[in-house]
Every structure is written in C-alpha cells, then in structure tokens.
Amino acid sequence: MSLPLPPIAPYCVLWIVAIPIGAMATPQPLWLVANVMNGFIAVPT
C-alpha cells in the first residue's frame, strides 16, 4: 500500500538543499529570511 509522496515533499528536499547553499552563496541576511520561511513551511508537516 504505497502512496505517492505528498506535494510538500519535494519542497522539503529543496529547502534542505537550498538553505546551506544559499547561506554559503549569499553572506547576507537573505539566508536568515529563507531559514525563517523554512521554519514556517516545516510547521504544518
């Protein structure tokens, strides 16, 4: 009984990959904003 991944799963993977890369690529507060957004997205899951 294997269900397909929920639509949020690809975004979770994307965030897990994008947050560290974004933090290294942009030494600016933008990574902090992205991290906060990641927190808001992770709450409902």
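The record above closes out task 2.4. Task 2.5 opens with a second protein, given below.
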Amino acid sequence: MEYVPEVLLTGTVYNNRCEAVEGAVVRVIAVASLTKKDLGYVMTNQFGEFAIVVEKNPQINYQFDIYEPVLTS
C-alpha cells in the first residue's frame, strides 16, 4: 500500500456580522491544472468551525464553497 501524505484543513465560517455560523455546509473541491474533483461536504460545529483531511500535494489547490445552514421546522 502506497503512503499518501495528508494534511488537516480547518476553518471558521462567519456571517456578515462577524458571528460564527453553526450548521453551515462547506463543499470541498480539489483543483489541479484544468480539473476539479468534488471531495465532499462537511458541516460547521456550534462555533462555526470545520475540519477535513485531504491529500497533501503541492500540485493541488483546495476550493471551499460555503452554503447557509438548512433551516428545519
């Protein structure tokens, strides 16, 4: 089995009032040259924080798309 180095990417999502956003959805996309690969989604915790482990590769950039929390009744 080949060893693939990994790195933990973390962040915090804030609204326009600089308040942490709980339950926001963060879409993670790997961008390399002319290709994009959807790696999946994570949700923020009660402090607006998220974390995801990805491949450590200098040829890959990571894009985050942030979506508002889904409201449930």
